[in-house]
Amino acid sequence: MPVGRFARQTRWGLIALTGAVLAFLYLPIAFLILFSFEEASTPGLPITGLTFHWYQVLLADSSIQRAVGTSILVALIVTVIATIVGTMVAFPLVRGGLPSPGSLRLGFTMPIMIPGVLLGIGLLIFFRQVLKVQLGLQTVVAGHLVFTIPFVVLIVSARLQGFDRRLEWAAADLGADSIRTLRYIVLPLIAPAILAGALMCVTLSIDEFVITFFTIGPQQTLPLYIYTQIKFGVTPEVNAMATVLLVVTLGLLLLGTGLMALRSRMKARRRKAEEA
Amino acid sequence: MTGEVRDGVGSAPLAGSSNGLLRRAGRAVPALPGLAVLLFLFLAPMLIMFLFSFWRTNPDFKVVPDWNIDNYLRFFTEGTYLRTFFKTLVMGSIVTVAALSISLPFAYFLVRYTGQRTQRIVLLAVIVPFWTSYLLRVYAWQAILGENGALNQFFMGIGLIDKPSMFFVYDDPGVFVVLTYVYFPFAVLALYSALEKFDFTLLTAAQDLGARPDQAFRYILLPQIRAGVITACIFVFIPILGEFLTPTLVGGAQSSLIANLIVNYLRQAQFPEGAALAIIIAGFVTVVMVIFRKSFRVEDVVTRG
């Protein structure tokens, strides 16, 4: 296909735009990392000198470590519950058994789309004024479940929608009962979606600020800690922590994709060996 | 095809009987915990917030069930509320327009001119910032937009200005930039999903038949990716209705959006007053969602994140 001058110009324009967009995305993050090495105690330009001092401060800071621990604890509980409960909803939602699945789907979309402030305030009024329960980690977990379960429902539903049910009937014809079919046919095939849902829960829960802000008691999660730091006196320690967080999540991400790639490569090799 | 036949054979004789109903109910059982969460932790709080919005706060900060509609009347009579609400809508609109004008060419380029591998890498690059804290991403902008931030240093460096400009500092332009930054990746994901399914030979065909590029875009491409554009708009616009952090962190005293007013009420323990404002926004969101539910593809964005 001959490429006209107009198309070529458009193309270069689009390449420039893509570069600009990626720069826009990463420039703030680059500054965030840069200032973590800043010598002066207020992050900002110009850089006065480079140091690892703030990473040492970070290592010795026990309140931040407690906050990280709390966040991880909440995220783990939320992820386990939301993944199981959400997956269980996806099956009847896709395969029938629930009245008006269309409205239910919209119902499960609402907690994702409704701004967190509204959900947070609703829960705060509900917990404090109606149920009269103490706010604490259990109310935070409840609050996180409200928006993480829908994510799992939507992600697993999408996968189930494309599921070839003849595989299950084949298993049944070959004598497998429904539990075996679920265990050996269905779950392995939708496992990537369940895993993706679980990963989504972890990241959403660990990063959730607004709903946590309204439903927590005297404890502190990492986002709440960051918030107080940002509001009342920032030191480059916050930047150091941001850098560590970024490196850890990126590392986990790379590790995850690396393991996936390795697994599929090993599978392919095994298949080849069996064929030969 | 075979599937439907088999399903029909399996369930038809039982369909009307109580046995069929029981089986149907049995199949719904796994959904119960999830439905319970939706009912008790989402619908119930929203409903209670609705009831609260008609109550009143005593001078001694007790909420009393003294039914009235003052909390709503205040929204329409006291200038601050309508003004702030209107301002939030304007801010949401221009951020949405900005996000679309960045994301549409970006996603278009990605789908049309790059291979699968590049697409995957670039999309990952768009998603990765989501894996870092939202607060930290907003905070990072203070270093760029602030009085001694990178932007001012840069402009002074090239001699465009000779003292720090306060244009982006703690005011609406800064809020606009940061909101666009935070929400445009959602638009990229939604538009990418839509463009991915578009058959680009249609554009060539249209131009062969004499359409100008802009006509081909307007009459061929745009109608086909309409759902993606609507999804993108919703994913950018709706969260801004609930934004109170960005105005707090990079905005100034004048930058309050409607959600800041809600949070202010809660700080003073005025639950019914805050609830009324929250209900107005929730109602607005619900109406938008219901109107566009046919075109709204939440999966396109969610399953990629």
Provide an overview of this structure.
The complex is a heterodimer of chains A (276) and B (305). Chain A is an all-alpha fold. Among the domains of chain A are: 5-37; 64-222, MetI-like (MetI-like fold, Orthogonal Bundle), CATH 1.10.3720.10. Chain A contains eleven helices and no strands. Chain A has helices at residues 5-34, 53-60, 62-95, 101-113, 116-131, 137-161, 166-173, 178-207, 210-215, 222-231, 236-275. In chain A, helix 3 (62-95) packs across helix 8 (178-207) and helix 3 packs across helix 10 (222-231). Chain A is globular and about 75 Å long. In chain B, a hairpin with a 5-residue loop joins strand 1 and strand 2. Chain B folds into two domains: 1-52, no CATH class; 70-302, MetI-like fold. The longest helix of chain B has 35 residues, at 79-113. Helices cover 72% and strands 1% of the residues of chain B. Chain B has helices at residues 2-11, 18-28, 32-52, 70-77, 79-113, 116-127, 134-145, 150-157, 172-196, 201-208, 213-224, 226-241, 245-250, 258-267, 271-291, 298-302, and strands spanning 56-57, 63-64. Chain B has 305 residues and is an all-alpha fold. The chains are: A mainly alpha (276), B mainly alpha (305). The interface between A and B is large, with 92 and 88 residues.
- What is the CATH topology of the largest domain in chain B? MetI-like fold
pLDDT below 50 for ≥5 consecutive residues: which ranges of chain A?
A: none
Largest sheet of chain B: 2 strands, antiparallel
Mean pLDDT of chain B: 83
CATH class of the domain at 64-222 in chain A: Mainly Alpha
CATH class of the largest domain in chain B, named Mainly Alpha
- Our count of helices of chain B gives 16
What percentage of residues of chain B falls in helices of 4 or more residues? over 70%
CATH architecture of the largest domain in chain B: Orthogonal Bundle
Q: How would the global form of chain B be characterised?
A: globular
- Residues in β-strands, percent of chain B: under 5%
Oligomer: heterodimer
In CATH, what is the homologous superfamily of the largest domain in chain B? MetI-like
Order of helices and strands of chain A: HHHHHHHHHHH
Number of separate helices of chain A: 11
Question: What about the largest sheet of chain A?
Answer: none
Shape of chain A: globular
N→C terminal distance of chain A = 42 Å
Spans of at least 5 consecutive residues with low confidence of chain B: 1-16
Nearest-integer average pLDDT of chain A:
85
Radius of gyration of chain A: 24 Å
